[in-house]
Structure to design on (366 residues):
């Protein structure tokens, strides 16, 4: 599957610069940032140990609590894929490398979910995959897989290995029962502070496009003729897709490793 | 043409709480929950009902298939996974469906 769209998107990385929150630095020497190319389908918490390794000797041991990440005053949800976080918080590509602040103190309880181990990231990822498969195939594909295949799927994500990931993930691209379509499309739309998730059945309507789905998710955003105002930007995987794209096609090609389409709507 | 509301979904959702594994059965199983409440809120509410110790785990499942993220709102879960005008959630003290 070389050159395929999912593979190309997998290869798209976000340059990021992780800096320790200045008020947490207790050493006289300022730590240099950690520079990384973040895979879009990865999770920030996978890099926690790297942050601990790099920054821990710049602060007081007893003040070291759970690591959390922040950009522009916004705590970053570790359970969202990196690419989604970037599309949500960075409206333009001018903020590169993406400057992320690393904190070891004052974990924002109530705003962020805690992540105590890598097993929790894996458990969360598998839950989202299970939800996606519930929607696409009534769970038939994931339930038909062995535990080792589940592990391989996660391992591919964790190690940023597309071939390993896709060797299992391609099974989720089959149609539901005898049809060519998914039963429902796993889709989340993000607009301002809201997350909208509704049921979209592609087999009902072969013309189920991104535009159609958005008019249902955000009706007040659209004019009576179902067009978008000029100042609205629709972003997924860092790209503004044509609104005439079929939702089924987008789901097969533009989903994140969690098998969800994450569509960010920005209104300036 | 009528103006559409952004959220034309109900403000309250009927939630049916079912035990899985060796989790205790609740006397009152059906609850009306505000659609804006999160999974985390339901877990906290259930923990109080079941008189869970701080050290006890409690897992919540949708469709006996997946554990929804704590920040998911009940309204959206009902919209996608509700049936017969209610949302069935299974709860367990150990991981039942992974």
């Amino acid at each position: 599957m070389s050159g395929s769209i999912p593979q190309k998107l997998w290869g798209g990385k976000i340059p990021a610069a992780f800096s320790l929150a200045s008020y947490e630095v207790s050493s006289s020497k300022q730590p240099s940032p950690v520079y990384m190319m973040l895979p879009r389908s990865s999770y920030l918490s996978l890099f926690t140990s790297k942050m601990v390794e790099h920054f821990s000797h710049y602060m007081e041991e007893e003040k070291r609590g759970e690591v959390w990440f922040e950009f522009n005053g916004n705590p970053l949800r570790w359970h969202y894929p990196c690419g989604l976080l970037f599309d949500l918080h960075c409206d333009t590509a001018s903020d590169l490398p993406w400057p992320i602040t690393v904190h070891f103190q004052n974990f924002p309880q109530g705003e962020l979910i805690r992540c105590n181990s890598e097993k929790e990231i894996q458990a969360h990822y598998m839950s989202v995959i299970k939800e996606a498969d519930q929607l696409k195939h009534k769970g038939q594909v994931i339930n038909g897989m062995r535990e080792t295949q589940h592990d391989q799927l996660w391992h591919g994500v964790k190690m940023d290995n597309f071939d390993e990931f896709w060797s299992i993930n391609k099974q989720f691209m089959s149609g539901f029962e005898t049809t060519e379509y998914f039963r429902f499309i796993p889709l989340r739309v993000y607009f301002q502070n809201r997350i909208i998730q509704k049921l979209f059945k592609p087999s009902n309507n072969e013309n189920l496009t991104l535009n159609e789905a958005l008019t249902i998710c955000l009706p007040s955003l659209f004019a009576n003729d179902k067009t978008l105002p000029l100042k609205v930007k629709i972003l997924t995987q860092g790209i503004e897709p044509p609104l005439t794209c079929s939702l089924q096609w987008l789901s097969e090609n533009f989903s994140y490793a969690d098998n969800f389409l994450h569509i960010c709507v920005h209104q300036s | 043409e009528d103006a559409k509301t952004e959220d034309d979904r109900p403000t309250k959702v009927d939630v049916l709480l079912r035990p899985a594994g060796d989790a205790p059965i609740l006397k009152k199983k059906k609850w009306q929950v505000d659609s804006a409440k999160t999974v985390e809120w339901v877990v906290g509410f259930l923990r109080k009902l079941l008189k869970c110790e701080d050290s006890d785990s409690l897992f919540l499942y949708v469709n006996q298939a997946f554990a929804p993220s704590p920040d998911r709102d009940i309204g959206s879960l009902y919209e996608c996974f509700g049936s017969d005008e209610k949302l069935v959630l299974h709860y367990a003290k150990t991981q039942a469906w992974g």
Remarks:
- Chain B has one domain: 10-92.
